[in-house]
Amino acid sequence: MVSTTFLNLNDEKQARIRKALIDEFSSRPLAEAEVAPIVKQAGIARGAFYKYFDDLKDAYRYIYGVAMKDIHIRINQAVAKGEFEPDFYVKQVTAFVDGVSQSSYRDLVKMHLKRNESLIDEDFDDVNLSGRQWAAMVLSHQVIKQILLNPKERDVLIKRLRDVLMQLARKGD
After folding, report:
1. What pLDDT does residue 10 have?
2. 95-99 LR contacts (CB < 8 Å, sep 24+)
3. In the predicted model, what is the mean pLDDT of the chain?
4. Which residues bind DNA (predicted)?
């Protein structure tokens, strides 16, 4: 878990470290990542890295968590309201996939999907979701993964997602 020492750093230094983490974990799988390029780019001592994070896996969990939190803010707000609008999910998937190409998280997310997903335990707070919300979450994540790894299939996958979500909307919980 990221240390309070890191969280108490000034914004500029935190941003430099986050950028170095994104760059390292976007260009190399977690199993091949190294501390040296991170500390060099961030302009910090190796010892400081270990003061902020337990190890590379801890640093990866932190930066991937930051990325996912940024990405999911609007979705979480709509889900908390108990809404199930198929078009909302389709729009969110489309916006994410279209926006990820211009995001500083693009390569991080792609590397996660290709090489790191199985190395990190992800805690989804999905036990309180309705059956439809849970299904929409699972389907949306799978469609995002498939599109990011096979961009030319985007339109077919978005249509398939919309069709399945419309069926779920008709059936109810």
Report:
1. 97
2. 96/71, 96/144, 97/144, 97/147, 97/148, 97/154
3. 89
4. 34-53
- Rounded to two decimals, the pTM is 0.80
Annotated domain spans of the chain:
4-70, 73-170
Tokens for 86?
Answer: 């198929």
Q: What is the pLDDT of residues 118-143, one digit of tens each?
A: 887 766 666 777 888 889 989 999 99
